[in-house]
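Progress report, Aim 2. The chain analyzed during this reporting quarter is listed below.
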Amino acid sequence: MTDPYVLILYYSRHGSTEAMARQVARGVSHVKGVEARLRTVPAVSAETERAIIADVPDEGPVYCDHEDLSGCAALALGSPTRFGNMAAALKYFIDSTSSMWISGALIDKPAAVFTSTSSLHGGQESTLLSMMLPLFHHGMLLMGVPYSDGNLGKTRSGGTPYGPSAFAPGPGPSKLEKEEVAIARLLGQRLAQTALKLAVAT
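Predicted structure tokens for the chain:
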């Protein structure tokens, strides 16, 4: 029997959201008996003739499929901010999950969200809140970051009670601040611990 896994599903254009995803995965790895599964989604095309921008590449992060999502014990969903909302690529994938909504495949599974922005007040909290909406529709159990973690009070960049966030002014990926790292790892650890407790309870 394989260990349950936390799916860390993200879209990252310049690498900052991916860096956060890897820190969430580090947090998951601290919990014995739970695995971290990192998955991404392809960019969407601006051309109306096709939906995704290219074929599956030979290398790089693995693309998520519906089996990855339906089989997870918990979900961490991550996206850069796009005008205060999640990126189109991630929204496109989430919009394709109506079969899971119909079957109830994600009901009662813990979930959380994380983001990065290129400006300090660029919509971190609105993006996190908007990312929660489809997860509520799927019947998932939304989790945030409690203020018992002192890093929420210390951070001068990213980090919110709604979920981890990072300030990444760019261009290219920015080095995460230590508080951003700690908050992301804490979230991964909480998701994994909660998934284990729910598995034991059922």
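The CA atoms of residues 113 and 132 lie 7 Å apart. Helices lie at 16-29, 66-70, 88-94, 98-103, 124-137, 151-154, 178-201. These observations will guide the mutagenesis work planned for the next reporting period.
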